[in-house]
Amino acid sequence: MTPPEQVEELLDFFKSHSIQYRLKIGDVQQVIDEQRNKIPSEMIQGLSSKSYNLTWDNYYRYDDIREFAYALSASYPQLVTVSVAGKSYEDRDLILIKISSGGSGTRNAIFVDGGIHACEWISPATVTYIIRELVENYDAHPQYVDDVDWFFMPLVNPDGYEFAHTESRLWRKNRRIHDETNTTCIGTDINRNFDYHFNEGGSSDNPCAPTYNGGQPFTEPESRALRDAILAEANRTKSYLTVHSYGQHWLTPWGWTTEYPDDYDAMFALASDAVAALTAVYGTVYDIGSSANLLYANSGPSDDWAKGVAGIPYTYTIELRDQGPVYGFLLPPDQIIPSGIETWEAFKVIAEAVAQMV
Ligand SMILES: [Zn+2]
């Protein structure tokens, strides 16, 4: 994101140091500005509701997502229960949505979260789209709620998300101040703060780094709230889906080692079925593999902990659209609904499998 007047200087620097480079986005601000445009209203017919603002025509703010959760629970009290799983560093409620049609806590469960990384706006947008589909279209496919219980934390990092909306579009971490005398290097990468092979690669102990791990496991109120919400239902949770962007990857643990989990073949088989259903909609291609093998080493992410400590067998990190490099985190809002539609197909496959698990 070099200012135009410094481009020449930067290129000279690369040249004089023999550094190879390539351009990813020519004008970041232009892409950001385009993203603020709402999509045409005919695309969202049937999605608008009088009781909340979300219409998936744009990236909505924390207050709208929170309002959506409570509006659903007011309209569908027999299906939706909203609770507060904890408070963020800046004292925002961390909303937890349970979707269940009964069963007294005996049904297998799926836990889904979104928005761990502040700049990945397509994540909470897609997760809320799926919540809406389960609840408002329950009559069209009741088995996806009657056969499994769902737990959603659609926005794990509301402080970072709001900061990305108001101040710095590509912000990643939360907003915790580590040291009152240093307010330039703040925030922790919540997805490096979980206590399983903590700080064993692909994670930084420098508070200025975008992947700062917090120094110790579970230093962050957001990671503690997510941990406690997952543990509360872990004994019946068969799948944990943590939704990120971008890259179009369906990832299994582990991040800390290139070794595969013992049950990798079963995890891969279910992922393949889910991805096939997703791709069948628009041809969107995903690749499947373990984080460390397909992407890069990363230690302390929530998925490794959910499998390694909480013992949830089918644990995946989903990296949504696109593949980059043109948009990346700056995915235009006209892709929100297609992302929701295709990802829902994958979630249906996961739900059908989870319902059958013993
Ligand atoms: Zn992410």
UniProtKB/TrEMBL annotation:
SUPFAM superfamilies: Protease propeptides/inhibitors (SSF54897), Zn-dependent exopeptidases (SSF53187). Residues 58-354 form the Peptidase M14 domain. The active site is at 319 (proton donor/acceptor). Its cofactor is Zn(2+). The keyword Zinc-finger does not apply. It comes from the Eukaryota. GO terms for biological process: proteolysis. Keywords: Carboxypeptidase, Disulfide bond, Hydrolase, Metal-binding, Metalloprotease, Protease, Signal, Zinc. One of its GO terms (cellular component) is extracellular space. GO terms for molecular function: metallocarboxypeptidase activity; zinc ion binding. Belongs to the peptidase M14 family. This is Peptidase M14 domain-containing protein. It comes from Daphnia pulex (Water flea).
